[in-house]
Amino acid sequence: MNKHVRYSLNPDVPPTAPDSNLSVRYGILDQDVPEGARMLPPCCPTKIVCVGRNYVEHAKELGNEVPKEPLIFLKPPSSLIANGDAIVYPSLSERVDFEGELGIVIGKTARHVPREQAQDYVLGYTIVNDITARDLQRKDGQWTRGKGFDTFCSAGPWLVLKEEVDFPSLRIRTLLNGEVKQDGSVTDMLFPVDDIIAYVTQFMTLEPGDLIATGTPPGVGPMQPGDTVQVEISGIGQLRNPVIRG
Percentages helix, strand, coil for the chain, rounded to the nearest 5? Predict the structure, then answer.
């Protein structure tokens, strides 16, 4: 399995740095990435498209109805952080949750994609933590603020090409301070990858590098400053981030 990374030799480059930043590079870990390089999120999305309540048991655990079609929302690219970067617990919230998810990275411009052609537009897969200020999400009635804080989308540590992934075997596990909180199979998605891409591209053009977070299995829960959250997907890797107070 080749680990495709996005990196910089400048240790001070922020995780939100665009590809236009001259210090940003792409490579394969352990082949052409210098030791000590600053790892960045593995893609540079124009948008982060997320699917809510895409696992039946997760919808139920929060007291929500199971959606009849994909429930779509956006996170801003300014929310991105990389593996090892800190999740900042905002002073505006009293309840910040982890949500481990499989991430899809789009490989080419996608518009009005038929379901049977959806895989042609998938470059590969990564790991996402869709961090959520749960109290603000419930208070606002829509999800922009609760999902959109800076540092609220951890992605990485690398991308694995779709050809190198045994998709049905993928399992998402989230550990809080080493204790397993989530453990679910991607085959339990209510709306699978092909359906998501076909649905989203009916109304939105997806560009190369765009990121889709496909939803979280049951077991989401709160984090606190001082905690460490780790999302693992078998066959892809581990995404680990500390939580600090804002």
Answer: 20, 40, 45
Identify whether 192 is part of a domain: yes
E strands present in the chain: 4-8, 24-28, 38-40, 48-52, 71-75, 80-81, 87-89, 96-98, 100-106, 122-130, 132-133, 153-161, 171-176, 179-185, 211-213, 221-223, 228-233, 237-245
**pTM for the whole structure:** 0.96
Tokens 């470059």: give the residue: 123
Number of structural domains (the chain) is: 1
Domain of residue 232, CATH code: 3.90.850.10
Radius of gyration of the chain, Cα coordinates, nearest whole angstrom = 17
The Cα 131–Cα 220 span in angstroms is 10
Domain span at residue 61 reads: 48-245
Here the tokens at position 237 are 């890797």
Q: What is the mean pLDDT of residues 224-233?
A: 98
CA atoms of 242 and 229, how far apart (whole Å)? 6
Yes or no: say if 43 and 16 are a contact pair by the CB < 8 Å rule: no
Summarised one tens digit per residue, pLDDT across range 35-64 is 999 999 999 999 999 999 999 877 677 777
